[in-house]
């Protein structure tokens, strides 16, 4: 913790507006050397805007920044780097086709007689990885690394730039429990080295494990700040959403009907081997397991995104011939992908255009899109799902992660599919938006849909499903028929095979 009176970082009165949006309203943030500050808030609360100002990606309309007691003029990312600020984004900023070593020292190469000093770079890379206590081959290509290893490269890269302030944006979102523990050990080591860390996460449980202090933004304003020991989980949620949530997972009381989706012997490559299960009308079945267990690959085979080697899929007793996603959609199956930015949306298109893509047959006439009907249909979902900003002509890439997920939901709800496959539907989404998505899942079940939810968050798996199917090494290794009476430890026992 900080012992001097001058904080390592002080952002005072930061104000920022965009057309139609007051993103930050006189926000203050302080960070001490050797402190972990958890920055919380719903999607759209202003966290990303504040961090982008610190990183030099945005200029504030008002306010000032001081680092180590001195004014800091941060007009661009290079200024931020020179000031000792490094941001590790959820989507890593690495060149996949280059080696670890090349990524670490990109832009800061050392040469002798015009030749790169590879031996020197390897030694420096090893020293950086030893500093954070991990082993990574500096000559390996970044595309061949695991997510946790890529994250370690990003952290080592920040240290190579002598960063004194490190921002971690959703660093645990795609990590296994073991990798999360390793991440926490790295964060603790960095704190012991006097580095100030801003830790952004929607996983509230981990905040209590790693943070010294917490700050909450809502609607672009500071609404709470406290030592982590002085605040409860329930109070943090209330600060974030501006109201009390009676339960993190809304209750569902839906009678379960006949079998709708039946998967038998589904096999595709090494990731999916002889998978069989069924989902009944009004039932929510969760597929869980460790990263790499084959959950996403199973959903892709059902949806036709990948071709199975063998196996069958039936809906309401009718065998389906699915040669691709178009066949799946026509058959009444939709998939909300884990990677909403890369696979679920076209970020350069507007909200309206993304909404219309899977619904063109319904929204077109004589090969022409009926834009008025498209806008009318979208308006209902903007209101029902509380998509913000409430502007169908806004570029989808400009929306927060939670609102992007709502756009994906809207386009599939309009399609009125009978089987809904959710792959990590709440990843990177704040607790308030999670609750709204949970309500939608319950509504789909109440309408008699067959719902399959893939989730790595064990409380979510137990709190939202009627049955939990646990996968390991491409197979279903166990079934939990009473999630309400089960524990996370039971899931983990099955998940490790």
Keywords:
497 residues; alpha/beta; 6-stranded mixed beta sheet; 24 strands
Percent strand: 25-35%
The radius of gyration over CA amounts to 24 Å
Helical fraction: 25-40%
> Could you please say which CATH topology of the largest domain applies here?
Rossmann fold
Describe this entry's structure for a reader.
This protein is α/β, with parallel strands linked by helices. It has a six-stranded mixed sheet, sandwiched between helices. It has a six-stranded mixed sheet with strand order 18-21-22-15-23-24, sandwiched between helices. The mean pLDDT is 90. The protein folds into two domains: 9-241, P-loop containing nucleotide triphosphate hydrolases (Rossmann fold, 3-Layer(aba) Sandwich), CATH 3.40.50.300; 259-495, Rossmann fold, CATH 3.40.50.300. The chain is 35% helix and 26% strand. The chain is globular, with a radius of gyration of 24 Å.
Indicate the topology.
Elements: E1 9-18, E2 21-31, E3 36-40, H1 47-54, E4 62-67, E5 70-71, H2 77-82, E6 85-88, H3 100-104, E7 111-112, E8 115-116, H4 118-132, H5 147-160, E9 165-169, H6 177-192, E10 196-200, H7 204-210, E11 213-218, E12 221-227, H8 233-241, E13 259-268, E14 272-280, E15 284-289, H9 295-303, E16 310-315, E17 318-319, H10 325-331, E18 333-336, H11 340-344, H12 351-356, H13 360-363, E19 364-365, E20 368-369, H14 371-385, H15 401-415, E21 419-423, H16 431-446, E22 450-454, H17 458-464, E23 467-472, E24 475-480, H18 488-495
Gist of the model:
This protein has 497 residues and is of the alpha/beta class. It contains 18 helices and 24 strands.
């Amino acid at each position: 913790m900080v012992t001097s009176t001058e904080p390592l970082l002080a952002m005072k009165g930061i104000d920022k507006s965009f057309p139609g949006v007051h993103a930050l309203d006189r926000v203050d943030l302080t960070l001490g050397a050797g402190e972990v500050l958890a920055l919380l808030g719903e999607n759209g609360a202003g966290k990303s805007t504040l961090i982008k100002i610190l990183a030099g990606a945005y200029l504030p309309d008002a306010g000032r920044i001081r680092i180590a007691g001195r004014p800091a003029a941060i007009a661009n990312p290079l200024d931020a780097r020179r000031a000792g600020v490094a941001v590790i984004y959820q989507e890593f900023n690495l060149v996949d086709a280059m080696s670890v070593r090349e990524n670490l020292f990109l832009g800061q190469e050392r040469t002798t007689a015009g030749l790169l000093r590879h031996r020197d770079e390897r030694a420096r890379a090893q020293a950086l990885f030893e500093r954070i206590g991990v082993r990574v081959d500096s000559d390996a290509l970044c595309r061949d690394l695991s997510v946790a290893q890529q994250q370690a490269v990003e952290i080592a890269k920040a240290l190579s730039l002598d960063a004194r302030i490190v921002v971690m944006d959703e660093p645990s979102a795609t990590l296994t429990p073991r990798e999360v523990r390793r991440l926490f050990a790295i964060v603790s080591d960095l704190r012991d080295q006097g580095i100030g860390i801003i830790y952004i996460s929607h996983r509230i449980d981990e905040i209590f494990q790693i943070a010294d202090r917490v700050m909450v933004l809502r609607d672009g304003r500071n609404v709470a700040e406290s030592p982590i020991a002085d605040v409860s989980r329930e109070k943090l949620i209330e600060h974030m959403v501006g109201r009390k949530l009676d339960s993190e997972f809304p209750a569902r009381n839906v009678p379960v009907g006949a079998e709708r989706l039946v998967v038998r012997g589904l096999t595709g490559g090494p990731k999916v081997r002889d998978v069989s299960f069924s989902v009944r009308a009004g039932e929510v079945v969760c597929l869980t397991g460790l990263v790499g267990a084959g959950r996403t690959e199973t959903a892709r085979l059902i949806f036709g995104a990948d071709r199975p080697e063998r196996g069958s899929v039936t809906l309401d007793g009718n065998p389906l011939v699915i040669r691709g996603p178009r066949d799946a959609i026509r058959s009444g199956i939709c998939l909300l992908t884990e990677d909403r930015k890369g696979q679920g949306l076209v970020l350069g298109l507007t909200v309206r255009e993304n909404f219309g893509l899977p619904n063109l047959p319904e929204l077109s006439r004589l090969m022409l899109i009926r834009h008025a009907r498209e806008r009318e249909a979208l308006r209902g979902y903007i209101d029902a799902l509380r998509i913000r900003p409430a502007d169908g002509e806004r570029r989808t890439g400009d929306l927060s992660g939670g609102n992007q997920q709502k756009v994906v939901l809207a386009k599939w709800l309009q399609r009125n599919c009978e089987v809904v496959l959710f792959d990590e539907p709440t990843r990177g989404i704040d607790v308030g938006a999670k609750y709204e998505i949970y309500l939608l899942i319950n509504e789909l079940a109440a309408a008699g849909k067959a719902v399959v939810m893939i989730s790595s968050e064990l409380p979510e798996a137990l709190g939202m499903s009627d049955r939990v199917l646990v996968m390991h090494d491409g197979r279903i290794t166990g079934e939990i028929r009473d999630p309400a009476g089960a524990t996370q430890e039971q899931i983990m026992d099955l998940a490790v095979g």
